[in-house]
Predict the 3D structure of the following.
Amino acid sequence: MLRRNRTRRISLLRYWTTRYAITLALGLLVLAMLSVVWIQHTTLQNRLDVSEFLAAELAGRIAGSQQAGDDSEASSYLDRDMLDVRDELRKMESPPSIFITDANGVIISAGDDNLYKESSFPTAVLEKNSAVQTFSALNDDAIVYLIKKPIMVNDITFGWVVMLQPEDKFADLNDEYRLLAMLIIGSGLLGWAAIYILSRRLARPISAAAAAAKEIRNGNYGVLLKPSRAKEQEVYDLVTSFNDMAVRLEQLESIRAELLAGVTHELKTPVTSISGLLQAVKDDVVTGEEAKEFLTISLKETERMQNMINDLLEFNTFAANALPVSTAPHELNELTGDIVHEWNLARNPDGIPIHFHPYERDLMVLTDPDRLQQIMMNLLNNAAHATETKGQLSVTIRTDESYALIDVADTGIGIPDAERALIFERFYRGENKKYKVRGLGLGLPFSQLLARAMDGDLELKETSPLGTTFTIKLKKQD
């Protein structure tokens, strides 16, 4: 019992867009996480640097005032305009708490928003070398950043400028996170839209080709795609190749139906002739010498039909790789000359002139003499039929870099343009031969198969109303 294929198929558009969306989402998620870590680090460090600079500037201004002998209150050292400018530069929603202490850490001035409720800072905290520290200043043990700078007058520490800011306020990055979220979401939507549009553009011609292929499968060969809509070279090649295939299939289907009728006719005609002739002899319609002549004709028709059947069987056998070909070194001038001479004696009853032009020196090739003879005999028979006793034939041997070439030429009427692409199709018979020469149209296809089996080829070199030339290519011996 056959198992059904339960694989669920999805459209190309959905396949690529969903997978790309998942990949894009994962990639942007990783990028967002790395960006958050980087923003937290760089922004926090930048704010600490700015706060440290502000504390140093305040300490410097206070020290300058002390040197100038200014006796104003310590609270005057807190320049509100300067603080407002610094807060604006730092873009912080809540400014830090700023304290001014004496050399022992006793607070002598503080801002309005007192984050620290004690009257002094521990001396151990102020005397640490680090200007930036974490400090537990609240009852709930929340972490607070402490930035301190000494007030120095003539290299003597008169006091300290201390700034406190809770960690949650210092690291408040809502604006940065909102900007990052907008960038990530925007990039994701833009990337998904791009792959959706591109996938849809790619899927459209493929879907059209699939639909057209179904039409062809159902026997409608008149389906053609529009290559003008394809901008991509690969899609254009696909569309044009599909159209060529559809036209070719339509031609072959027409030829197949015609050739099937032709083959049936070719095999039926001798059977009908033989049946009629033998029936006449049996019924004593003819007697004596005339009866013998009827029997002779019947035997010839039987032999012709047998030859056609043998050709069909041999072709099918060779096409199935069951007919052996054995190649060995042979001298081509002598071998070809013998084949031409044999054909002229046995198969040229009309005495058509044939000219053989050997190569200028000995030429060794790898070939099977029996198979080469089959090819040559078929080509010479076709050439004789094309000339109709009004022309001449020629066989010429020449070479190129890798192959020895045998040109079999005639001065017949040539092959029409519409038939040149079909002459090597099995069972195809041209209009000029269809009603004049009995056969199944297997000669040229079979000869080409034989030539290719010997690592060579059989090609139509040229044809015109002045004649036709076929070329046999044989591999030269190294």
Summary: The CA atoms of residues 353 and 392 lie 5 Å apart.
